[in-house]
Amino acid sequence: MDSSLPSKDFQEGVVDDAGGPIPTDQNVLQKHVAFFDRNHDGLVYPWETFEGFRAIGAGYFLSIGGAIFINLALSGKTRPGKFPSLLFPIEVKNIHLGKHGSDSGVYDREGRFVPLKFEEIFCKFARTHANALTSDELMAMLKANREPKDYKGWIGSWTEWKVLYRLCKDKDGLLRKETIKAVYDGSLFEHMERERAAAKKKART
Predict the structure, then answer these.
(1) Residue 107 in contact with residue 113, Cβ under 8 Å?
(2) Three-class SS of the chain
(3) Are the CB atoms for 67 and 58 separated by under 8 Å?
(4) Tens-level pLDDT at each residue, the chain (205 residues)
(5) Exposed, middle or buried: residue 110 (CB in 10 Å: 0-12, 13-18, 19+)?
(6) What is the CA radius of gyration of the chain?
């Protein structure tokens, strides 16, 4: 994984307390999810989730499982007041309604990025390397974030972070701070897709 992960859609010259850029759009959670909206119609269907996972290098089984799990879990929550659809679409504009408990708190209730919560991850759990998490440190964070009897939240958080670790850990088994930041600001998946496409093109030449 390239250690240089460019973030997009951030206001140039404006930084948070940790020196990171502050998003000009108040809802970076939407940017994070919009990658899977492959035709940009504001809806993410299971086949688009599958295509998005494949585009970032996930295998068939992980992509199928991710599509089923994510769309079943989020479709109803992001379509309040609407009749359930057997196509299980996710509405990108309402993705903040799909936030589960037992998470890191880096996104607030409206889907906005909270810099102090992001830095808290590394202050509390990055014991081996200041700017990266090991597998054990990641598990420690997940356990610390658990809310009592919030079993759905436990499963949601565990699934999200373990998939991220599997796809994005470096050769030393570390999940780097800049990688996690790129997940939250919405730029990681597009970066991974471009990187993968470039590697395929190079292999054909």
Answers:
(1) yes
(2) CCCCCCCCCEEEEEECCCCCEEECCCCHHHHHHHCCCCCCCCEECHHHHHHHHHHCCCCHHHHHHHHHHHHHHHCCCCCCCCCCCCCCCEEHHHHHHHCCCCCCCCECCCCCECHHHHHHHHHHHCCCECCEECHHHHHHHHHHHCCCCCHHHHHHHHHHHHHHHHHHCCCCCCEEHHHHHHHHHCCHHHHHHHHHHHHHHHHHC
(3) no
(4) 544 554 444 333 334 444 444 444 448 899 999 999 999 999 999 999 999 999 999 999 999 999 999 999 999 999 999 999 999 999 999 999 999 999 999 999 888 899 999 999 999 999 999 999 999 999 999 999 999 999 999 999 999 999 999 999 999 999 999 999 999 988 999 999 999 999 888 888 7
(5) exposed
(6) 17
Q: Work out whether the CA dihedral 144, 117, 27, 109 comes out positive or negative.
A: positive
The two structure tokens encoding residue 77: 């929550």
pTM above 0.85, yes or no: no
Beta-carbon contacts of residue 158 (< 8 Å; ≥ 6 apart): 142
